[in-house]
Fold:
Amino acid sequence: MNAIREKVESIEEDTNLAAVSEVEAGIRDFVRNDVAYLRRPGTTPSTGENALESTTEATVNNVNSLIQRVAGTSLAEIENLISELESLRDLLHAEGQRVQREISGYAQLSQAAMKSTRMIADNVTQWKRAADGLRNS
Structure:
């Protein structure tokens, strides 16, 4: 159980680190693309505005695709984790029922042993009385 938990945590950490790196790279690209038109010398305002619009649109598309990739990976991992947890829940439910059956069996065995012990004790007591009666007579 701990091995599964450690494996899941390791996968989550790797996924989280990859997602963080990917988001940081996307943000860097976004910033570079967003301010790139400011660095270009000699652009006219109308050309700069058209370039700004196309750059902004491309950047938005890049950020959207980045978010979809990151979210898609996270959702897939969450769905895998949910399915593993559901199978673990089913296993635990089945094991709980098995343990209840075994406890019930042990309880019945214990009651039968107690009855047998009482019967033996009663017989030994009767034999002791009979032996004491024979000795006294």
